């Protein structure tokens, strides 16, 4: 096991979970649980990993020092992908002081038997002097749990913000420039879209707060994925833009189809969007017959789109379950909290009375999307005139997108 140096006396000692494919309801190509060792005259371990990765983290630490010599453990966040190794660490390092927020102390006691643990509660502005390395703590409640906190290492200008600015990716790369700027940002966009959207107002407030501190940030070392050492400014700007709802002239069309009619409408609408020179993504939700687009990849597209169109046939007077499930996921993410509202509308085919389009529009509104029209629906299969109307509908949505 090897560690990776960020700066003299600062090392990554995390774990790589190569085979994790689903977490928090979204698909991923593995991830890393980043822990960091900071050595001054004293040594601090920042964060940990999922239970089961104890030996990997301890093995990396051993390549630097004897784990028994660790003087402090910093718990930035108690979710089990970072705190799962803590019981074993405490067993091996009894009495080691654990620094965390009050809410983290409460939360740790709900996850583990913390009897006898030497927990020290910290607040924003508290510092821990390691001798030549100084850690400053910054509470970050609801980014993304009540207990969350950031830790800042002044001498090396490194911010350890735990989940914030993270990406779920497993690779040999430890740094953004090793993975590649665009790949790292794409993984960060998926992470933001699936976890951070509801917290957008808090992100902007926290970024302002950090800016007001006037601290230099040379490196951002999150708890998942690569460390931002070359493109720290880019990920900070991306978080600001995503939180403000800065989007492209782009329409995401999300649909499922029973006999192909709603699919025909989706394609005709997409042609209309493209005819206006606006970018478009067409995402078929998985219906068991095709390898569709997973909801977590769809919301990643939605994040930087100005419009989202939802296609569903009517089944038993209801929205098709795949589409209803997606809309429920979207509602939970609350894209209405982004600084700029997205527009949207539903469409679909029906055999009987219909109903899915009106319901989907209501679900879009509940997700915070500004519904621009009553919806576009056809009976059974769309004929040539109706496909032409779908094409014109796409053009009209694209013009609205361009004008925003
Ligand atoms: Fe990576 Fe909120 O845990």
Automatic annotation (TrEMBL):
Origin superkingdom: Archaea
PROSITE patterns to which the protein is assigned, alphabetical: FLAVODOXIN, FLAVODOXIN_LIKE
GO molecular function annotation: electron transfer activity; FMN binding; metal ion binding; oxidoreductase activity
Transmembrane segment boundaries: none
Pfam families in the record: Flavodoxin_1 (PF00258), ODP (PF19583)
UniProt xrefs under InterPro entries: Flavodoxin/NO_synth (IPR008254), Flavodoxin_CS (IPR001226), Flavoprotein-like_sf (IPR029039), Metallo-B-lactamas (IPR001279), ODP_dom (IPR045761), RibonucZ/Hydroxyglut_hydro (IPR036866), Rubredoxin-O_OxRdtase (IPR016440)
SUPFAM superfamilies: Flavoproteins, Metallo-hydrolase/oxidoreductase
Flavodoxin-like domain: residues covered: 251-398
Family matches, as PANTHER family: ANAEROBIC NITRIC OXIDE REDUCTASE FLAVORUBREDOXIN
Designated name of the protein: Flavorubredoxin
Native organism: Methanoculleus thermophilus
